[in-house]
Model the fold of this input.
Amino acid sequence: MNITKRLKKIIFFVVTCIYKSLHKYIKVDEKTILFVAYLGRGYLCNPKYIHQYMQNRDEFKNFKFVWALKDTNIKIEGAKVIKYRGIEYFYYLAKAKFWVINSKLPEYCVKKENQIYIQCWHGTPLKRLAHDIHVSEETTFFRTKQTRDEMLKSYDTDVKKYNYLLSPNRHSTEKFISCFNIERERIVETGYPRNDFLANLNEEKIQHLKDKLKIPKDKKVILYCPTWRDNKFNEKGYFFELKVNFNMWHENLSDEWVVIFKPHYLISNKFDLKGLDDFVYVFEENHDINELYAISDIMITDYSSSFFDYSILNRPILFYMYDIKEYAEELRGFYLDINKDLPGPIFESEYELIKQIKDKKIFETYQDTLEKFIDKYHEFEDGHASQKVVEKLILKNMW
Done:
């Protein structure tokens, strides 16, 4: 570890110690709400859509909305932007009446009795989580190489602080109870606020987004959004080995299609796709994926839970799982039977994947399967999840 990194660690340790000592002396402000998405990675996910809904409600005109971001150059209308893990961040952790968060908080975060922690989470689980991961004793987790006990302790510490955990469907509720070891009473089935955008989508919005993102309107759009691999990381973060040949995709599909490539937010490496500028459009990991869902005609993914949300649009979903045996047996395992329960076909061969896209018949073959999947997993996605969260969990806890 170089001197700069070591110094930053020391400074951060001192700051957290001061925070833990002084947080109780900072009075909670009933009209302050702290939002954090993906540990400060952007203005994203469920917290974003809850914030946007609240901005348009008269009840919150005098509220202070605070967003903690790693990049403080991002401007958010109607909100104060602070540096994630900066001095102000710790101040607002102690001051805000409500925390609206979408991922596990670090163990140093201290919640007072009169603060309300709304854990939105960030997906319907396909991959096993926390207490539901069954591995050998020597297995370690994340880049920090936590033991299983350490990993579970980090979840348990955070879960104890939740006042509410949002659930998008009954499947998630069941799995959250087991994986987070949480009581059913703290889980609220509202649907996901971020999915209000998809439930209320119209053609005018789609065309506007294509203009905004400079996506050709004379081509159909493939959205390729693979997830991260727990065992692929270096000192910079998790990296993704691109197992597709976009030149081959271009040769076979470019007359009719373009591709949007959206890496997972945890992936740190960049991708060199020279010569494919008019065919492959790469969006940064912190771009709101809802916009990309909206403008795409089909999705290709692997083990990402993104397909649950995307299926709301009733558009074809294909699964390219080139490492399916390794992933299922050596990494996490799944909650669903992927050979029976997915809303689209699995491909291990890239050649077969491209062949079936060109043929198009595969889309019709799985239409009934997709519609049954939608009926099962989107019973609460009525376009009013943000409203339900605000009215049930925020307005009822004011004063």
User: Anything to note?
Assistant: Residues 3-195+383-397 form a domain with the Rossmann fold fold (CATH 3.40.50.11820). The chain has a mean pLDDT of 90.
